[in-house]
Structure formats: structure tokens, C-alpha cells
Amino acid sequence: MLTQNYNENLQTLKNALRSDKSFDLVERDLIICGRKAALFFVDGFLKDDITEKILEYFFKNLKVENFTSPETFSQSAVPYVEVETSSDVKKISTDVLSGISALLIDGFDKAILLDSRTYPQRETGEPETDKVLRGSHDGFVETLVFNTALIRRRIRDTDLTVQSFKIGTKSHTDIALVYMESKVDKKLLNRLCKRLDAIKVPSLTMNQQSLVEALYKHTWYNPFPKVKHTERPDTAASAVLEGNIIILVDNAPSALLLPTSIFDVLEEADDYYFSPVVGTYLKLARYFITIVSVLITPLWLLAMQNPDYCPDLFKFILVNETQNIPIFWQLIIMEVGIDGLRLASLNTPNSLTTPLSIIGAIALSEFAVESGWVSMEAILYMALVTVATYTQPNYELGYSLKFCRVLLLVLTYIFNVWGFIAAFVINLVLLCSNRTLSGKSYLYPLIPFNAHEFFRKIIRIRSR
Hints:
Layout: H1 6-17, E1 25-32, E2 35-42, H2 48-60, H3 70-76, E3 82-86, H4 89-97, E4 101-105, E5 111-115, H5 144-152, E6 160-167, E7 173-180, H6 186-198, H7 208-215, E8 228-230, H8 233-241, E9 245-249, E10 255-258, H9 262-266, H10 270-273, H11 276-305, H12 327-346, H13 350-363, H14 366-370, H15 376-389, H16 395-433, H17 451-458
Antiparallel strand pairs: 1-2, 2-4, 3-5, 4-5, 6-7, 7-9, 8-10, 9-10
Helix pairs in contact: 1-4, 5-8, 11-15, 11-16, 12-15, 12-16
């Protein structure tokens, strides 16, 4: 705790911040109305023009009567920005490292905390993985306060609440819960707040993913996503207006939507930027393509292993030529190969992305067939699966469906028909056993069945 001894306070804050060890932690010694003062801040987090105006006011317009107490000083001597006082050294240190300036003045037992911070950020633009044909083309950035402002811009209602938390004993990462006070599920909100307060970790090393793993500790074995990620402020604002809770994490350019069902994850903004008829078609098409992407290669493998069971109408899908590599291993090799190309494209400079795509397409098509590694049919079905994966922007769901598909392939290859049935049941169990933070079923409103809500999830109804 600070005292009225200026020299002791100065040394205490220096020791707490270790400002002599870090070049970007700046201590600026001042004389204000004949009193010694010191300003602590992080270089790069300060708005230079606002700080300059504040200091100019201190030197030119400040009167001696403003020095009666820290509270009086903060109320009458600071004409700009947010200001508060504190004698807690730990709080002062955390605020300074968050970008707030701390002003020590001789004779005061509290520091004056000036919120004149700014954070480096990229330009607000449309997310690369969550684009729309119509609608706004702005997206979240890595700065928390700008993300909350993007939601405030869309919901101009005092009912909108933004509740802040700090998580991480070392990182002190800023977290914000955004919700509508009159619509939110109070039990879910209280449960979420208790879980956030109970998180005791040094830092959120992997940002949002670390937070999700801290909230869902015992469901790591289930691959289906526990939350929905969105980089679109309009999607987040729409979810808030429906009574959901949005979690924003500083340094993360996306929002977490709670609670989340499989139907929420499969939704896209384009479903609501078109007319109800078009939006309904887009929804149903996405559901159908998602199911096909999981079942098409396992069903083809099942037909290849049991040609007698294949109806005459679909006999053309059977491969009659002798294969150098079994169909099962062709599909597995291509599953891994496609992921390899995807990872390579992420680490390839933009100027080389197109040549890499061309080389990859040739290597996995004509040359692969001619060399006898894969068949044309296997390439066709894996191409359909790959394209179908991009019909929805959620990467977590895409890989979850991939694991389901691989499980179907493996058990079908080993145990034939019974293996396909067993894998199908296991995938259904994983889907049904995945729970949201509110405790609801991941398949709600299908299980338990709610006709009205299920209709709203499947059919794009007219906005009111």
C-alpha cells in the first residue's frame, strides 16, 4: 500500500514494476505546482496527443488548491480521459502494464490512474473465413474495447450489459461477457461467472482455446466444438438479441457464443441476409451437404466390400479394375494428404499459393492415377468431401466431422457392415453426449424435441 511519503512510494512502484529492467516501462519525473511527481507508463500504449494535453494543463492551468487530496485532484485537475485513484500497488502495477498511466504526487497516499491508453491494431476488415455476399463487411480485431464498440454500434439499448473479468495470475487477460439483461438466462449467466472466477491459471496461453478448455475441463475426448466462434459483429449482435451470451477475449479477433448447439454452429450470416425462401434453401443445402460429407466415402467403401448388396441403380460406382493399393488405404492417404496441402498453404507466401495449389491438384489427380496410387473414383469422392468441408466456416466442426468419417472408414474396413453400424452409433453417442455450458443437449431443439424452436432452426422465417 502507498503512503504519504513520496520517496517510499516511488521506490515501491519502481520495485513492483521493475522499470529499471525494461526499456519500454517509462518513468517520467515531473514538477507540478512545486511538488515532485512521477508518471509511469508503457511506451507504445500511450495516446501521445491526449497525454500532451493533460501535461500541458498541469503546467499551465493547474492551481494549488487542487492539491488537497487525490480525489479532489482527479476530479478538478484532470480535464480528459477516465481517471481513478488507488493505493493498492498490485492494482497499480497491473493497470500500468495494461496501458494506464500512473501519476505519483508528493504528499498523496494514492496514485492517480489516467486511462489514456491505446493498443496497436490492424484495420477493421471483413473476416477471411466468414465472408458474406450481402451485409456488413467489418469484423472483430484483436483489441477488446473496439470489439465491444462494434456490438454497441448495433445495439443501442441500455439493456445491453458488458461485464468485465480478468483471468490469469500472470497475464491478467481482459475478458468481457456481453448480454441483454432482460433476455439472458440468469442461471447460465451465474454459472458462467462462477466458472470464470474459479479459473486459476497463470495465463491464457492459447487465448480463447485456453479459456474454453478451462471452462470445459472433462470433455476433451469429444471432438465436437463446445462453443461457436464468429468474427462477425453482426452475428454476435444477433446472438445477443436472442438471449445468448457473448464472450470477448482481449487479443482475440473473434467472439465465443454460448450456449451452442449443432444447429447454431451450422448457421451462417448469409442465411439471414437473403429472403426467407433463399435462406431456407441455403440452410437445408448446408445440412444435406454436411451429412453427405461424412457418409459418402464410408458408404462407397461399404459398397466396394459388398458389391452384391449394391442396388443395380448404383452399380456404376463400383471399381472393377484391380487396385495396387486397397480402396481403404487410398482414402486414408488422401485424407492425410489433403490436410498436408492445407497446412502447407497456411505457411506458403501469398505469391506462391497459386503454384502450390496447381502442383497439389496435379499430384493428387492425374499423376497419382497414372502411377497407380489412387483411382479416379477415390479422387472424385475425396474432392467432393473437401469442397463440402468449406460449406461451413467452423474449422472445429470440420475436423470433428473428419474424425467421424475416418472412424466410419476404419470400422467398416475391419468389421464390414457391423463395423459401419457400430461407428455410426458411436458418432451419434458422441454427438448426443456433447453438452453445452447450460447443460442442454447439443442436439437441442431436436433432442429434447421442441417443435417451435426446431422449426426456427430449420426454416428461415421472416424477421420481425
